[in-house]
């Protein structure tokens, strides 16, 4: 082989090597997958629904590989749950629900979200289920309405489970029989209710790499999660504030403070600050009550109780109005939240201190009012009754004379003889004439 041919082959090999190097250069390598992750640790209500929907929209716009919601919830509102699921099923980005960490649960509305997701995963020591609907309008449902509501949600659960190839029978029983399932029961069912059991999100991503996921519309997606960049999505300040307010105990505190502030403003007109703060607290409380399952009979009892406390200062009832107001406040607080879910009920450890605190304030203010009413007037005609003076002249029975009292000289009459210089006390005032007696 000639030297010229050898040089030509070597040059060709160099060109091929260079072109291969350019083809695999980091600039042209495919970008690493992006995964959006969000924590949902709250009741499912319009605020949490807005947060989840915004997260899915951001993932769609960014072309993310997957959205993971770490879910911990006692349940929530059916309407908000349906809004989230509707958006979840239409999203371009696959959605994974991870019930975790260990010890967490996804009950009621959380169960529906789990079985509706493209990927359903649970951490060890978690459970899902108990999705029977409860009244959330403050009115007790009769047997027919309760059955209709349960059948409606059960049909919804069956539809979701069937399309996701999950256990339809168990999904229905979670609604109609309030059944709950541990992670082992959910994964071990045939077919299973969930797809995976993972200790945390990083382990879940490792298990999902290369997994084929069937979307709700029947299309198939292969998940690539190796080396993925996880982008955490947090609630904005408005969502955090509203989510915190939409808690039964917080809403009850705001209601109590708001009503007490307005009560103090009525007791002491012109104070301004209690009225302004009370009005703000009441508006925030009423916002929360639009989200929470409130029994409006309980709310009216609470407002009626505070009204009786206000009247106690204006009407002399010797404590009867205060006692009635406190009883109304206590009973109203006990029935305020109309839900069988413990997390949606008021805690007696909160209710009792607030009721007793309001009682102490009411008793204290009522005592001040009674004391002020018992004090003698210091101005006007009434202030003259009982005043002590000295006779400047002799006063015969039925006759008139002059007395000095209250720093002034008055014309006085008496029903008994009074000598000049005697001590007298005023018993009656008629215009500019006093009726006096020896005193």
Give a quick set of tags describing it:
3 domains; rod-shaped; 439 residues; 6-stranded parallel β-sheet; 2-enoyl-CoA Hydratase, Chain A, domain 1; 5-stranded mixed β-barrel; OB fold (Dihydrolipoamide Acetyltransferase, E2P); alpha/beta
Biggest sheet details = 6 strands, parallel
Note the quaternary state here: single chain
Assign the CATH superfamily of the largest domain: 2-enoyl-CoA Hydratase, Chain A, domain 1
Look at the structure and give the CATH class of the largest domain: Alpha Beta
Please tally the helical runs, counting DSSP H or I stretches of 4 or more residues.
14
Q: How many domains in all?
A: 3
Give me the Rg, rounded: 39 Å
Provide mean pLDDT, rounded. 83
Distance between the termini: 150 Å
Helix content: 40-55%
Q: Output the strand order for the largest sheet.
A: 8-5-3-2-1-11
The structure class reads: alpha/beta
The CATH architecture designation of the largest domain is: Alpha-Beta Complex
């Amino acid at each position: 082989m000639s030297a010229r041919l050898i040089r030509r082959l070597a040059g060709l090999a160099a060109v091929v090597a260079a072109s291969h190097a350019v083809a695999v250069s980091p600039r042209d390598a495919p970008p690493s997958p992006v995964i959006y992750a969000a924590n949902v640790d709250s009741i499912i209500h319009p605020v949490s629904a807005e947060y989840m929907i915004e997260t899915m929209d951001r993932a769609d716009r960014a072309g993310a590989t997957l959205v993971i919601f770490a879910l911990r919830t006692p349940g929530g509102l059916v309407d908000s749950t349906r809004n989230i699921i509707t958006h979840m099923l239409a999203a371009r980005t696959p959605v994974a629900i991870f019930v975790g960490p260990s010890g967490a649960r996804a009950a009621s509305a959380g169960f529906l979200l789990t079985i509706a997701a493209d990927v359903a995963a649970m951490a060890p020591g978690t459970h899902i289920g108990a999705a029977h609907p409860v009244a959330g309008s403050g009115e007790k449902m009769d047997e027919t309405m309760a059955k209709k509501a349960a059948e409606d949600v059960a049909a919804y659960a069956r539809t979701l489970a069937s399309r996701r190839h999950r256990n339809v029978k168990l999904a229905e029983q979670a609604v109609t029989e309030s059944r709950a399932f541990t992670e082992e029961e959910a994964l071990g069912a045939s077919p299973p209710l969930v797809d995976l059991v993972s200790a945390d999100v990083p382990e879940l991503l490792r298990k999902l790499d290369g997994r084929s996921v069937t979307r709700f519309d029947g299309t198939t997606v292969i998940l690539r999660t190796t080396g993925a960049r996880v982008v955490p999505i947090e609630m904005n300040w408005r969502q955090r504030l509203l989510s915190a307010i939409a808690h039964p105990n917080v809403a009850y505190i705001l209601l109590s403070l708001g009503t007490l502030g307005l009560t103090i403003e009525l007791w002491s007109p012109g104070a301004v600050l209690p009225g302004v703060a009370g009005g703000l607290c009441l508006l925030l409380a009423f916002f929360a009550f639009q989200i929470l399952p409130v029994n409006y009979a309980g709310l009216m009892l609470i407002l009626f109780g505070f009204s009786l406390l206000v009247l106690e200062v204006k009407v002399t009832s010797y404590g009867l109005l205060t006692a009635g107001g406190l009883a109304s406040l206590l009973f109203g607080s006990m029935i305020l939240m109309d839900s069988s879910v413990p997390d949606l009920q008021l805690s007696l450890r909160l209710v009792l201190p607030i009721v007793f605190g309001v009682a102490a304030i009411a008793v204290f203010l009522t005592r001040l009012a009674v004391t002020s009413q018992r004090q003698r007037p210091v101005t006007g005609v009434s202030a003259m009754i009982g005043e002590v003076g000295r006779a400047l002249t002799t006063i015969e029975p039925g006759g008139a004379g002059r007395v000095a009292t209250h720093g002034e000289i008055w014309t006085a009459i008496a029903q008994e003889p009074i000598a000049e210089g005697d001590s007298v006390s005023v018993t009656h005032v008629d215009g500019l004439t006093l009726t006096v007696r020896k005193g």
